[in-house]
Each structure stands twice: as structure tokens, then as C-alpha cells.
Specification:
Structural class of chain A: alpha+beta
Shape of chain B: elongated
Largest sheet of chain B: 5 strands, antiparallel
CATH class of the largest domain in chain A: Mainly Alpha
Shape of chain A: elongated
Number of strands of chain A: 4
Radius of gyration of chain A: 24 Å
Strand order of the largest sheet of chain A: 2-3-1-4
Strand content of chain A: 5-15%
Strand content of chain B: 15-25%
CATH architecture of the largest domain in chain A: Up-down Bundle
CATH superfamily of the largest domain in chain A: Multidrug efflux transporter AcrB transmembrane domain
Number of domains of chain A: 2
Distance between the termini of chain B: 22 Å
Radius of gyration of chain B: 30 Å
Number of strands of chain B: 18
Number of helices of chain A: 10
Number of helices of chain B: 17
Oligomer: heterodimer
Helix content of chain A: 55-70%
CATH topology of the largest domain in chain A: Multidrug efflux transporter AcrB transmembrane fold
Number of domains of chain B: 3
């Protein structure tokens, strides 16, 4: 006998759309606030976007954060942000962030490194990475990120309009944008640093959640051919989602298994990236059931195209 | 056997063999310990370069190094000068980085006024910034006469023959202390304005063949230097095979050789390598050390054609430059004049007549307009140094890189294992078949990366595992559909056929949408993000193939079964 996670289900997804719209409304509102704040430069934007210098490394022996701070401020970096990094391979790992300063920016990384080494002569400091970004880079990158999001959303809209129809296209695009905003909002609340990798993850999850949506839409399209009465419309949509339920749960769990493995074992470089994807898989699955399809239902019931009575 | 199965199996076997063929160099390289790598770099530099070229490259985030983005400041240049300012700056950087001896450097234009420089293995910010930030030095120098140049090479041969014979055995401790010191010296020399001494590989792998030792085993005992040299384009110059250049540089760096080189003479390499009969070669010159004229007197240089449709470069000098040049050319008619950029020879045209403030260089037979353009760019680089500033600088230390590799590998292994278990348990025998498809997927994806000479980055590793998670989706869709058809009472044969044909529409739609986002990422991406986009794109494309052709083969055979384990 085959193993089945769930048998034949008859969950009324569409009937719960009011609650879903409320939840999604809050998520999207949070996302919009986050987006406005971030584009005004408020919030935890990575140095790739705002410019500055970031240095990571570790000491051989324990070092007090206060001692490090006073060492740096006596070298002219009074506003340096210092953070002891937990869960690194090396115990005494630190991250130092210095704001973009046109006068210093050229050699800030090297200067910080030398200042640290000079202040703790008996305790070797090993550099893991230095990232220095001039203010001009951030502007380019911000516009590139905006373009990438815009191009992918537009590409999706066009493809689905061609393969399905315009209403499906719009609903899928809204659902995808919903997912990006929802994850961004949650990241903002938890003060996760928005780096290029996080933006990459946001676009990837857009692709993933869209796959989910398209798969449900495919089944809706197939089932709508079998039903011809207006009264059958909502049940047909519900049936479609229910029929794809075990596929969605199975695929989501394999993807989740992978991103959780990346989160737990992938090291510091990929932590925020995989965190973002974990959220994305969960929200993407939710949105294909309770956002993408209900939007189509709302539109179709308000101005019927397929089922004109 | 059902029809169509044979060629599908053939295709899959062919692709597996092909993938293994392309991946073999990578596997070979990754299995080597760092000691074995140093050993190979020392004893078989040609094989080493070849192996590195064929293997999948690791990104800077995995092997450590510097990624620098430069911006050319065109605001102070007039529009005419500004047009190729970025090309000029790029040319200067390429020349210097080549001289620096970094393995596999990347120098690319990015957008209208930016240049990306990637220096794997270099973590010394200060030195690299010196390298990049220095203003270009363009000089004109006379070459040593062919007779004297040949005499010098003969003398070096003799002195090297004497060493080659003697068996100096140095203890390991001696060698290690000896390797540290010259390496430092060599690095300093790279940045000093005087570029007399040959450059050496800064990673230390090649620089470690140091002085005082016996000659490396691959160097012939007889005529050690000239056996590595082929006659060059004119007397007193030589061609050296690209893979043997490090050997020659090491020979020339030996103190006993340095002692033989007269103080007013220097060896210099060409800025570019050329291909002769499919062999990549660099030119070795013997120059008179004295700078006859500085490039700062050049006001312009443009490529064009002469009346015989041969490509030429016409150039213009300032009035003061014209006076100097007239004296220089008038006294040296018939002799070659080397155009030297940052210590390396760009070209050595023969002086045909006295030139004042306007002259032209006729390119050699078989030269293209592009080559004339390149020379003009170099000449203009000396005339109009385009100011560059570093706008982004990323340095990854070697320990973070290797830590990332270990962690990425572990995470991939565990994530992949979880996927294989979930699918294997849920779909039983069919699940095991899908698991094989997933493994094929990873194999093919890695092979594509090797074929494309793609660079593996940390996000790229994440892209590969993510592909594993996503790629099972095709099979999940097919299997779920087959189950539905079976539940509806269809026979195994009909269920499989219906399952594949109906799921296919969905699979194509879902794959295309993912490909669209991968393309958007590629557009946005720089460095690591691009690596991620490339792996995601190919991973998704390949999973389409493994689902449609790969697992289908097995199901074509299983169609004849009475019951199906799914």
C-alpha cells in the first residue's frame, strides 16, 4: 500500500479567504512599512547598500568588547559598531562596522585592522574578511535590486497571461509580491541585516512560491473545463487545491529539509539567506492556497468572465 | 524492450560518461592536499595550469582573495579623452596584474565606468591597493644589440650549467627559511618603480623555487636557459612557452644570474602573450635600462590604415617631446624602440626615420586593426592616465573560505540525504528511482559548471542543494498523478502514460517561471549572486531533462508490470 500523508481532503480554502486576506493584509502592510523605511535608509541595511567598512576576524585569546571599543575609538573610529560573533568556528570572533566616511573610506579596512593589531600586540588577530563599499555602489545596487524584482514580476505576469489568462497572471503576480513583502516585513521586525544575499533569497523565494501557485492554477484550469455551472466555480477551485495538497506538502517538505540543513549547518555566510528561504517556503505555500487562488475567485465572482449567468 | 527505451538508456549512459570526463580534473584537483599541489606546481607547471583551467573554479568567497571594484573618474577628462578611459585603465590593470603573477585573475568592465578586479589568494590589502592605485608608467627604451643579448644568455647558460652539475643538498629547515625571505623581496620588487628583476608568482608556489638550490629537475643540464628559449621575432629577443615562463623567471631571479646582468641592461617580458602554431608564448627582451623618453609627452594616439591598407597607429607628441624624440630617433635609425608599460614591453617597432612631434607605427605583417587599437590604447594610457578609485573592496581570508567549503559540503550532504530519504520512503521503489534522478541531476549540474568554466561560490553551493530540493518536484508531480490515475481504476500502463503526459504541462509551466526568476537574478547579480543564478538556472533546466527522460526510461519498462510500487 502506498504511504499517503493525507487522504482525500475537502478543506474549504476559499471559504476562509476573508481571514486569509486579513492576515495577508497585515503581512503586506508590515512589508510596505519595511520597504519605505529601508529605502529611506532606516533599518539594518547591509554595507553593500549604504556603504561603509565591515571587518570580521578572531583573536587567539579572549578579548573584552569594551577594550576593543576603546582601542578603536582612540584610533579615530569612535562610532565603530562592535559585535562579538557567536557560533563561529573560532571562539573570539568579532565584527567591526565603520560608517562610510569619504575621508577614510579608501583604506578604512586596513586602518582598522592595523589599529586592532597594534592595540593587542600579544594576542594575534586573524582577519576573516574585509568588506569596504563606497557610497556610490549602494545606489547602483539599490536600483539593480529594484530592476531585478520588477523584471521578474513582469516576466511572470507576461508568461502566466500567455499560458493562462490575464486574471491568473495578475493574481499570481500579486501573490508573489505578497510573499516578498511578507518575508521582508518579518526580516525587518527581527532586525535581520538586508544584504545582497538576502535580496537574492527574496527573488528565489518569489520563484519558488510562484511554482507552487502555477501548479495549483494548472489544476484549476484543468478542473474548470469539467465544470460549467456558476455554482460549481468555488467548489472546483477548492477541489483543485485539495487535489494538489499532498504534492505541495511533499515538495515543500523536501525544500524545507534542504533550507533547514543550510540554516543549521551552512555556516554564518548562509544563515540569513536560508532563514529567508525557510520563511519563503512557508509563506509561499500559504499564499498559493489562500492568496493566489482567492484573488482569482474574488475577481471572477465580482465581474464574471468565465461563468456569465 | 519497449521501443524508445534503448536510445534513452544510451543517451543517459553517454551523458553520465561525458559528465565524469568533464568532472575528472575537478575531482583530481580537489583530492590533492596542499602539499601535493605545491609539489605539482613546482615539478609540472604546465600540467598544473592545465588542471586548474579544466577544474571547476572556486569563487573568492571559498578560496580567499580580493575582489575590488574600481571606478574611473572621467569628470576631469574632456569628452574625447573620456570615451576609452575605462579601456585604458583596464589595459593598465591587466598588464600589472599579469606581472603580479596571480593565478586566474579576473579583470572585467562593469557598466560604463567600472572595472572589477579579482585576485584569488591575495589578502594583503595594502599591497594590492598599491598595485591598483599606482599611476601608469609608459616609457620608451632602446633594446640591447642582438649580439650582446645573445652573449649575455650564453654567459648565463654557462654559469647555470656549473650549478646544475654540483649537488648542493640543503636541509629542509634551510629551505623553509630561505623561501620566506626571497618571497618577501620579490613582492617588494613588484611594487618598486624599477622593474629590473623578473616578477614571480606572489602566491609563493612558484617563488619557492629559490636560489641556492640545484636547478629544478625539468630544466636540462645543458644550456639550461637557452633550451627554454625559442628565437623571437627579431635578433636578441626570444619566445618562451607560456607554461615555461615561470621557470625562466625563476632562473633569471637567481642571484648568480643577477650578478651576470650588466647594470645598464635589463630583461623584460611582453605585456601580452601571442599564439604561434597553437602554442601560447611570451616574448623576452633585453633592454637598455635607461629611459629614453617618458610617455607623458604623448598627446594622442589613434589607430588607422596606411595607403597599403596596413593597420597603423599614428601618434602625436608635445613640442618638448617632439624635440626629444627627434634626437632619439635620429640617432638610432634602424634600431628597435621598445614601448614599455609598467616595466613590460608592449611593442618594439623599428625606427625608420627621424620623427618630430608626429609619427606613425606600422603594425607587423598579419596584424589586425584591433592590435593597432590596443597599442593606441596603451600609448594613450601613458598620455592620459585615467584616475581610478576603489569603490568596493572585499577581502576574504583563507580560513573563512575553507570553513565555508566544509560547512557548505556538510549542509549539502545532510540536506540531500533528507530529500533522498523523504522521497525514498514515501514513494518506495519509485522513490528510489527518483532519488537516482536527483543524483544524476547533481552530477550533470556539476559537469555543466565544469564545461562553462563557471565559478563555484558559497551561494552557488546553496543553489545546488536548493536544486536538489526543487528538482524532486517534477517527479512528485508525476508520481502523484500516476497515483491519482491508479486510484481512478486505470491499469498500470495507462496510469503511467496519463501520469507523464498530464503532469508534463504543469512541469513545464513551473520550470519556466523559475527560469524567469533565475534570469532576473543573473541580471542583478554580481559575483556570488551570479554564481547562484547560474546554478539555479542550469539546475532547473537539467531537472526538467532528468524527470522527462531519466525516470521515464524506467517507467517505460515498468509499464508492463501488473502492480506498481509507488
Amino acid at each position: 500500500m502506498p504511504i499517503r500523508i493525507i487522504g482525500d481532503t475537502h478543506v474549504d480554502f476559499i471559504g476562509k479567504r476573508k481571514i486569509a486576506f486579513l492576515v495577508s493584509g497585515i503581512l503586506v502592510a508590515m512589508g510596505l512599512v519595511a520597504m519605505v523605511m529601508l529605502s529611506m535608509g532606516k533599518g539594518n541595511l547591509g554595507i553593500q547598500f549604504i556603504g561603509g567598512t565591515m571587518l570580521e576576524g578572531y583573536f587567539e585569546q579572549p578579548v573584552d568588547v569594551g577594550a576593543l571599543r576603546s582601542a578603536l575609538s582612540s584610533s579615530g573610529f569612535a562610532d565603530a559598531e562592535i559585535q562579538q560573533l557567536q557560533g563561529r568556528a573560532q571562539a573570539n570572533s568579532f565584527l567591526v562596522r565603520v560608517k562610510a566616511d569619504p575621508a577614510l573610506s579608501k583604506q578604512a579596512g586596513q586602518t582598522v585592522l592595523e589599529a586592532i593589531r597594534k592595540a593587542f600586540p600579544g594576542n594575534s588577530f586573524h582577519m576573516d574578511s574585509i568588506h569596504e563599499v563606497g557610497p556610490a555602489v549602494g545606489k547602483t545596487l539599490q536600483s539593480q535590486a529594484r530592476w531585478a524584482v520588477l523584471v521578474s514580476l513582469l516576466g511572470i505576469l507576461v508568461y502566466i497571461t500567455v499560458r493562462f489568462d490575464f486574471r491568473f497572471g495578475v493574481a499570481a503576480t500579486i501573490a508573489t509580491f505578497h510573499d516578498i513583502l511578507a518575508v521582508l516585513g518579518i526580516l525587518y521586525i527581527f532586525n535581520v541585516e538586508i544584504t545582497i544575499l538576502v535580496i537574492t533569497a527574496l527573488l528565489t523565494l518569489a520563484g519558488y512560491s510562484l511554482t507552487d501557485t502555477v501548479i495549483v492554477y494548472d489544476r484549476i484550469r484543468e478542473n474548470l473545463k469539467k465544470f460549467h455551472k456558476k455554482a460549481d466555480f468555488i467548489p472546483a477551485i477548492n477541489t483543485s487545491i485539495n487535489e494538489m495538497l499532498s504534492r505541495t506538502i511533499l515538495t515543500s517538505s523536501t525544500v524545507l529539509a534542504v533550507v533547514i540543513a543550510l540554516y543549521l549547518f551552512g555556516g554564518p555566510v548562509l544563515r540569513d539567506f536560508s532563514m529567508c528561504l525557510i520563511l519563503g517556503v512557508v509563506i509561499g505555500t500559504y499564499s498559493s492556497w489562500l492568496v493566489a487562488s482567492p484573488i482569482y475567485v474574488e475577481w471572477e465572482s465580482r465581474s464574471p468572465k468565465r461563468f456569465k449567468s | 524492450m519497449p521501443r524508445g527505451v534503448a536510445w534513452k538508456i544510451g543517451l543517459i549512459v553517454f551523458l553520465i560518461l561525458g559528465s565524469l570526463w568533464y568532472l575528472y580534473p575537478s575531482i583530481q584537483l580537489w583530492q590533492m592536499s596542499s602539499a601535493e599541489r605545491d609539489e605539482m606546481a613546482k615539478n609540472d607547471p604546465k600540467g598544473w595550469i592545465d588542471l586548474q583551467r579544466k577544474a571547476i573554479k572556486l569563487g573568492l568567497d571559498l578560496k580567499g582573495g580580493m575582489h575590488v571594484v574600481l571606478e574611473v573618474d572621467r569628470s576631469k577628462l574632456n569628452p574625447d579623452e573620456a570615451t576609452d578611459a575605462v579601456d585604458r585603465a583596464k589595459e593598465i590593470l591587466r598588464n600589472r596584474v599579469d606581472a603580479f603573477g596571480v593565478t586566474e585573475p579576473v579583470i572585467q568592465k562593469q557598466g560604463p565606468d567600472r572595472i572589477v578586479v579579482e585576485l584569488p589568494g591575495i589578502t594583503d590589502v595594502e599591497r594590492a591597493q598599491e598595485l591598483i592605485g599606482r599611476t601608469a608608467q609608459l616609457e620608451f627604451k632602446l633594446t640591447e644589440t642582438p649580439e650582446k643579448a645573445q652573449l649575455l644568455v650564453d654567459r648565463i647558460d654557462k654559469s647555470l650549467e656549473a650549478i646544475g652539475g654540483s649537488d648542493t643538498s640543503s636541509s629542509p629547515t634551510d629551505t623553509s627559511t630561505a623561501t620566506d625571505k626571497p618571497k618577501d623581496d620579490v613582492l617588494k620588487d613588484l611594487f618598486s618603480k624599477d622593474s629590473t628583476k623578473p616578477k614571480s608568482d606572489s602566491t609563493g608556489a612558484l617563488a619557492s623555487q629559490d636560489t641556492g638550490e640545484v636547478l629544478p629537475p625539468q630544466i636540462p643540464k645543458e644550456r639550461p636557459l637557452s633550451s627554454l628559449l625559442d628565437p623571437g621575432r627579431r635578433g636578441g629577443t626570444w619566445s618562451v612557452r607560456k607554461d615555461e615562463v615561470p621557470l625562466v623567471k625563476n632562473l633569471l631571479a637567481r642571484p648568480e644570474v643577477q650578478k651576470l646582468i650588466p647594470p645598464d641592461v635589463e630583461f623584460a617580458w611582453s605585456t601580452k602573450s601571442s599564439f604561434t602554431g597553437g602554442v601560447e608564448e611570451e616574448q623576452l627582451y633585453v633592454l637598455k635600462k635607461q629611459t629614453e623618453m617618458s610617455g607623458k609627452y604623448l598627446t594622442d594616439a589613434k589607430p588607422s590604415f596606411d595607403q597599403f591598407r596596413k593597420p597603423i597607429v599614428s601618434f602625436q607628441l608635445t613640442r618638448e617631446g617632439g624635440r626629444q624624440f627627434a634626437r632619439l630617433t635620429g640617432a638610432n635609425i634602424g634600431k628597435p624602440l621598445a614601448i614599455v608599460l609598467d616595466g613590460r614591453v608592449e611593442s618594439d617597432p623599428e625606427i625608420q626615420s627621424r620623427i618630430n612631434d608626429r609619427g606613425q607605427i606600422t603594425m607587423g605583417t598579419g596584424s589586425s586593426y584591433e592590435q593597432a587599437n590596443d597599442l593606441a590604447i596603451v600609448l594613450r594610457a601613458g598620455a592620459l592616465p585615467a584616475p581610478v578609485k576603489i569603490i568596493e573592496n572585499n577581502v576574504i581570508g583563507p580560513s573563512l573560505g575553507s570553513d565555508s567549503i566544509t560547512k557548505g559540503f556538510l549542509a549539502s550532504l545532510l540536506g540531500g540525504l533528507a530529500v533522498v530519504l523523504i522521497i525514498g520512503i514515501y514513494y518506495q521503489l519509485s522513490g528510489v528511482i527518483a532519488d537516482f534522478a536527483v543524483m544524476l541531476n547533481v552530477l550533470f549540474l556539476m559537469a555543466v559548471l565544469a564545461v562553462l568554466h563557471a565559478t563555484l561560490t558559497m551561494p552557488g553551493i546553496a543553489g545546488i542543494v536548493l536544486t536538489v530540493g526543487i528538482s524532486v518536484d517534477s517527479n512528485v508531480l508525476i508520481f502523484e498523478r500516476i497515483r491519482e490515475e491508479l486510484r481512478a481504476g486505470k491499469s498500470v500502463k495507462n496510469a503511467i502514460d496519463a501520469g507523464y503526459s498530464r503532469a508534463m504541462v504543469t512541469i513545464i509551466d513551473s520550470h519556466v517561471t523559475t527560469l524567469i526568476t533565475a534570469l532576473a537574478l543573473f541580471m542583478f547579480g554580481t559575483g556570488p549572486v551570479k554564481g547562484f543564478a547560474v546554478t539555479l538556472f542550469w539546475g532547473v533546466a537539467i531537472s526538467l531533462f532528468t524527470a522527462v527522460v531519466g525516470t521515464r526510461v524506467v517507467f517505460d519498462i515498468r509499464r508492463e508490470y501488473k502492480t506498481l510500487s509507488i
